[in-house]
Design brief:
Blueprint: H1 7-12, H2 33-41, H3 45-49, H4 52-65, E1 71-72, H5 79-84, E2 88-91, E3 95-98, H6 105-109, H7 120-133, E4 139-144, H8 146-155, H9 163-171, H10 173-197, E5 201-206, H11 214-235, E6 241-245, H12 252-255, E7 262-264, H13 271-278, E8 283-288, H14 297-311, E9 316-320, H15 330-342
Parallel strand pairs: 1-4, 4-5, 5-6, 6-7, 7-8, 8-9
Antiparallel strand pairs: 2-3
The structure holds coproporphyrinogen III.
C-alpha cells in the first residue's frame, strides 16, 4: 500500500516536494489534553508504553489534532536497556531511574542482546498503529543512539553532567566499547524489527551528544551510529534514516559521511553553517527553539518564516530543535504547524 502523504519520505530522500513537511519531536503525549485525559485513567508511563491500544491512540492523536505529516510510535528510548536486562522506573516529574547500573565486566556480561521476544509489545503497537493510520502519513520508528543509552545505563538516571557515564569512558575505555557494542547489536535488531513490522522511517536520538568532547564523540558515539546506519542500509536500503545528535555542532562535518539520509539540528546550530558542514547530499531537519511556542502568534509566524526561508525549499523537514515541552499550549503548536504548511517559497 502506498502512503497518501509521503512528503516527509520524499524530502528525506532528496526528492522535490510541493511544500515543506513537518513533524515535531515529542508530539505524541504530554502537550495534548487528550493524552493527559487517558493517561490519568491508566497506570504509570511504562504500562502505557506496553499497551499497544494506548500507544496507537497517542501516536495518531497529533496527526488528527496538530495536522503533522508523520506519526511517531509512542514509546521510549529506554525500551532497549530494559530489553537487555536493566529495568527502570519513570519517577513522576523526575524522569527515569534504574535500580541496577553498569560498573564492571560482569555487569556487562550479564546483559543480553535484545531481540523480538524482549520488545514484542512495541511491535504490536506498530502493527496496530499502521493499521489505524491506514497509510494517511508515514510512521516513524526510533531508538536512542548507543552513547545516550550507555549514559542512562551507567549513570542510572538523568543528570546535568552525566559525570559517572563520562568517568566510565575515561577510566574504562575498553569496557565502554564492549558495552557500546552490545547496545549497538541490540539496537540493530530492534530497528530491523520495527522496519519489518511497518515503520516507514527511523530516527536515532543522541540526546546527550553535546556533553562529549569532539574526539570522544567520534570514538564512542559516531563509530556506533555509523555501524547502525550501515547495518540498516544493508538490510533495508529504502528506509530513510535520521540522526539527531543534540549539541553535536562540532560533529556535523563528520556526520555528513554517515550512511543516513537526514541530519537533525538543534536550535543552537546555525542553519547556514550546518548546511556548509553537512553538504548538499543530506536532508536537514529542525531546528526551532521549542520556547518560541510560548510567544504570540505574530512572533511565531515571523520566526518560523525566517527559519523556512533560511533552510530553503528542498532537502528540508521542518521540526523543533528538541522536543515539545509539556506546558506549551496546543493552539500555539497548531499555529506553528499551519505556518509551515502555508509557507510558499518565492
Ligand atoms: O516523540 C514522541 O512524541 C514519541 C515518544 C517519545 C517519548 N520519549 C515519550 C515520552 C520519544 C521519541 C521519546 C524519546 C526519549 N526518551 C529521549 C530522546 C529524545 C529527547 O527528548 O532527548 C529521551 C532522552 C528519553 C528518556 C526519557 N523519557 C526521559 C528523560 C523522560 C522524563 C522526562 C520527560 O521529558 O518527561 C521520559 C518520559 C517520557 N517519554 C514521557 C513521554 C511522553 C513523559 C511521560 C509522562 O507522561 O509522564
Amino acid at each position: 500500500m502506498t502512503l497518501k502523504n509521503d512528503l516527509i519520505i520524499r524530502a528525506a530522500l532528496g526528492e522535490k516536494v510541493e511544500r515543506t513537511p513537518v513533524w515535531l519531536m515529542r508530539q505524541a503525549g504530554r502537550i495534548l489534553p487528550e493524552y493527559r485525559a487517558i493517561r490519568s485513567k491508566m497506570g504509570g508511563f511504562i504500562e502505557l508504553v506496553k499497551s499497544p491500544e494506548f500507544a496507537c491512540e497517542v501516536s495518531i492523536q497529533p496527526v488528527d489534532i496538530l495536522g503533522v505529516d508523520a506519526a511517531i510510535i509512542f514509546s521510549d528510548i529506554l525500551v532497549i536497556p530494559e530489553a537487555m536486562g536493566l529495568s527502570y522506573k519513570m519517577v513522576e516529574s523526575k524522569g527515569p531511574w534504574f535500580e541496577k547500573t553498569i560498573h564492571n565486566l560482569s555487569d556487562i556480561e550479564a546483559l543480553g542482546i535484545a531481540s523480538e521476544e524482549n520488545y514484542s509489545y512495541v511491535l504490536d503497537a506498530i502493527k496496530l498503529t499502521k493499521k489505524e493510520l491506514n497509510n494517511r502519513v508515514p510512521l516513524i520508528g526510533f531508538a536512542g543512539a548507543p552513547w545516550t543509552i550507555f549514559a542512562y545505563m551507567v549513570e542510572g538516571s538523568g543528570s546535568k553532567t552525566f559525570s559517572q557515564a563520562k568517568k566510565f569512558l575515561y577510566t574504562q575505555p575498553e569496557l565502554s566499547h564492549r558495552l557500546l557494542q552490545k547496545i549497538t547489536d541490540s539496537t540493530i535488531n530492534y530497528l530491523r524489527s520495527q522496519i519489518n513490522t511497518g515503520t516507514d522511517m527511523i530516527q536515532l536520538f543522541d540526546s546527550w551528544a553535546g556533553i562529549l568532547s569532539s574526539a570522544q564523540y567520534t570514538e564512542f558515539a559516531l563509530a556506533y551510529i555509523s555501524k547502525i546506519c550501515d547495518a540498516l542500509k544493508k538490510s533495508h536500503p529504502n528506509t530513510p534514516i535520521t540522526v539527531f545528535a543534540k549539541g553535536a555542532f562540532f560533529a556535523l562535518k563528520e556526520m555528513s559521511d554517515l550512511n543516513c539520509d537526514t541530519i537533525g539540528l538543534d536550535w543552537n546550530m546555525s542553519i547556514k553553517h550546518s548546511r556548509v558542514d553537512v553538504g548538499n547530499n543530506k536532508t536537514l531537519q529542525g531546528n526551532m527553539d521549542p520556547c518560541l511556542l510560548y510567544s504570540d502568534n505574530a512572533t511565531i509566524k515571523k520566526e518560523t518564516e525566517k527559519m523556512l526561508f533560511e533552510f530553503g525549499p528542498n532537502r528540508y523537514i521542518a521540526n523543533l530543535g528538541h522536543g515539545l515541552y509539556p506546558d506549551i499550549e496546543k493552539e500555539k503548536v497548531i499555529y506553528f504547524v499551519e505556518t509551515i504548511k502555508n509557507y510558499k517559497h518565492s
